[in-house]
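Open question from group meeting: does this chain pack into something compact, or does most of it stay loose? Before anyone orders reagents, we agreed to write out a predicted structure and look at it together. Recording both the input and the output here so the notebook holds the full record.
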Amino acid sequence: MIEGLKDRTNSGRPSELSKKVSFQIKKEPSKSKQEWITKQIEELIVKKKDMKHHYIHIYRISFSK
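Structure tokens returned:
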């Protein structure tokens, strides 16, 4: 295998949201017919996990793979 194609280990702080909760947060807006705004996603995170995030981080959470 070519050295440059290997996966790197994740550096930095681990996510406080579990993969399950993150998946649920991403799935919820897709069920709705209307567009969701960052404020609505923030309210969903607070409801499910009782934690607040900066709007930029919420954007990253909602559009990450």
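Observations to bring back to the group:
The two ends are 25 Å apart (CA to CA).
The mean pLDDT is 77.
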